């Protein structure tokens, strides 16, 4: 195993959840379709999901209704969000599972002294219960959602708040995610970013200009993280 760098204890890897840690697409589509069926709308597909996910359940439902030709008011939205949350919670963890290699990567990073955290736009309660049901909560020093702070991704304060809760340091943190909000929040907080192409981005992740793209969690190594932190420290110094 790679020896832990001397200051590894201070380093923090912050993960996005939907489409990064967990393949949630089957359950999201099922709960979303159950929700919009209340308005007699046609089901959405997995391909649609890439345009719908990213800003939490409220926005996802709003976008899905619009996509199916029935824009809704904010008064109509509240009961639909409740319907979604009830269905999604009742069926958790459903078909959701960690992406290949994730658990081994988290074990490796923790064994080398890294802290891990989750910064998701999913509701904090849903994120926490889902991770709990999958037996993954113990890996994380903080789990924050789209409703944890007043601001959410891509606002830098969602990421900096998560780092603070996890006992990390902005200058020793890395953000890893699947979509524009994740790469944008990292840039907004001046934190290096890693993109994964297997999630729900509606554009190729290379167009988001992350510092690194990994196609499998086997590539998430201590060396990669340390290189990113070193490069970013040099950029700040220059
Ligand atoms: O639930 C969403 O819309 C987004 O969730 P994520 O931030 O974990 O990708
Ligand atoms: Mg995501």
TrEMBL record:
The keyword Metal-binding applies. Its EC number is 3.1.3.18. Pathway: Organic acid metabolism; glycolate biosynthesis; glycolate from 2-phosphoglycolate: step 1/1. The keyword Hydrolase applies. It comes from the Bacteria. InterPro entries: HAD-like_hydrolase_sf, HAD-like_sf, HAD-SF_hydro_IA, HAD_2, HAD_sf, PGP-like_dom2, PGPase_prok. CDD domains: HAD_PGPase. It holds the Pfam family HAD_2. Its cofactor is Mg(2+). One of its GO terms (molecular function) is phosphoglycolate phosphatase activity. Mg(2+) binds at residues 16, 18, 178. Gene3D superfamilies: HAD superfamily/HAD-like (3.40.50.1000), Putative phosphatase, domain 2 (1.10.150.240). Keywords: Carbohydrate metabolism, Hydrolase, Magnesium, Metal-binding. The active site is at residue 16. It catalyses: 2-phosphoglycolate + H2O = glycolate + phosphate. Specifically catalyzes the dephosphorylation of 2-phosphoglycolate. Is involved in the dissimilation of the intracellular 2-phosphoglycolate formed during the DNA repair of 3'-phosphoglycolate ends, a major class of DNA lesions induced by oxidative stress. PANTHER family: PHOSPHOGLYCOLATE PHOSPHATASE. Belongs to the HAD-like hydrolase superfamily. CbbY/CbbZ/Gph/YieH family. This is Phosphoglycolate phosphatase. It comes from Rhizobium viscosum. The lineage of its organism: Bacteria, Pseudomonadati, Pseudomonadota, Alphaproteobacteria, Hyphomicrobiales.
């Amino acid at each position: 195993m790679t020896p832990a760098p001397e200051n590894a204890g201070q380093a923090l890897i912050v993960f996005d959840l939907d489409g990064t840690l967990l393949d949630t697409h089957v359950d999201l589509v099922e709960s979303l379709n159950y929700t919009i069926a209340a308005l007699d709308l046609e089901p959405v597909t997995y391909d649609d999901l890439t345009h719908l996910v990213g800003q939490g359940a409220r926005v996802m439902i709003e976008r899905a209704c619009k996509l199916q030709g029935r824009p809704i008011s904010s008064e109509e939205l509240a009961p639909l969000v409740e319907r979604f949350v009830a269905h999604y919670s009742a069926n958790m963890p459903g078909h959701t599972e960690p992406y290949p290699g994730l658990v081994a990567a988290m074990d490796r990073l923790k064994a080398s002294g890294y802290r891990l955290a989750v910064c998701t736009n999913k509701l904090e309660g849903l994120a926490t219960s889902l991770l709990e049901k999958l037996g993954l909560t113990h890996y994380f020093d903080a789990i924050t959602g789209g409703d944890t702070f007043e601001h959410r991704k891509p606002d830098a304060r969602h990421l900096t708040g998560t780092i603070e809760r996890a006992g990390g340091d902005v200058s020793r943190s890395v953000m890893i995610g699947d979509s524009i909000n994740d790469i944008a929040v990292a840039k907004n907080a001046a934190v290096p970013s890693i993109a994964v192409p297997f999630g729900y981005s509606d554009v190729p992740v290379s167009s988001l200009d992350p510092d690194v793209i990994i196609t499998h969690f086997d590539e998430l190594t201590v060396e990669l993280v340390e290189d990113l932190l070193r490069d970013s420290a040099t950029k700040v110094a220059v």
